[in-house]
Amino acid sequence: MSYLGAPAWGYGWQFPKARSTTIGNDGREAKNPRIKSQLATYRARLDDGSDARFKGHFLPFGDYRRIPGKGRVLLTGDAAGHAAAEAIATGRPRTALPAYSRVLRPVHRALHMACWLRPLMFRA
Questions:
Q1: Residue 3 pLDDT more than 70?
Q2: Which of 27, 36, 71, 76 could form a disulfide with 7, with the two C-beta atoms 3.0–4.6 Å apart?
Q3: What's the pTM?
Q4: Which residues, 6+ apart, have CB-to-CB distance to 29 below 8 Å?
Q5: Phi and psi (nearest 5°) for 77?
Q6: How far is the CA of 41 from the CAs of 21, 26, 29, 81, 94, in angstroms?
Q7: 23: Cβ contacts below 8 Å, ≥ 6 apart
Q8: What is the DSSP letter of 80?
């Protein structure tokens, strides 16, 4: 699940897992100088109740490879790993990249739309 407004300028997420939950937030650094305290507030709102430690990393936004690989190499990430596995499962390495690219078209359309909408939603 994701929630707009978890940090002042951005969104938060909560991904339940078998034995834990990943909770985080993301937003423009310049608009969120207290991002760590905003995460603590968000966790309290979710009634997280854990004493888990904080860790973080800046996430890129708006940049993706329109052609997700070259030759017999596919670039994958968390969300794209399953699609890449399906493309590879055909057993034809030369067709894996075109198959993978077709599967990612809806994802790329959504990313393109998000890049277009970002300045409208998060004006400086």
A1: no
A2: 27
A3: 0.50
A4: 35, 58
A5: -145, -165
A6: 16, 14, 17, 32, 49
A7: 12, 13, 14, 15, 39, 42, 43, 46, 48
A8: T
As a whole number of angstroms, the distance between CA 84 and CA 90 comes to: 11
CB environment 25-42: b (16+ within 10 A), e (fewer): bbbeeeebeebeebbeeb
Nearest one of 67, 21, 70 to 43, comparing CA atoms: 21
Phi-psi region of 25 (alpha: psi -120 to 50; beta: other; left: phi over 0): beta
Neighbours of 96 (CB within 10 A): 21
Q: Give the span between the Cα atoms of 66 and 118, in whole angstroms.
A: 19
With beta carbons less than 8 A apart as the criterion, state whether 103 and 83 touch.
yes
Q: What is the pLDDT of residues 87-118, one digit of tens each?
A: 788 788 888 888 888 888 888 888 888 888 87
Closest CA to 78 of 59, 97, 91, 62: 59
| Number of CB atoms found within 10 A of residue 118's CB | 13
Range from 14-28, 33-47, 51-65 carrying the lowest mean pLDDT:
51-65
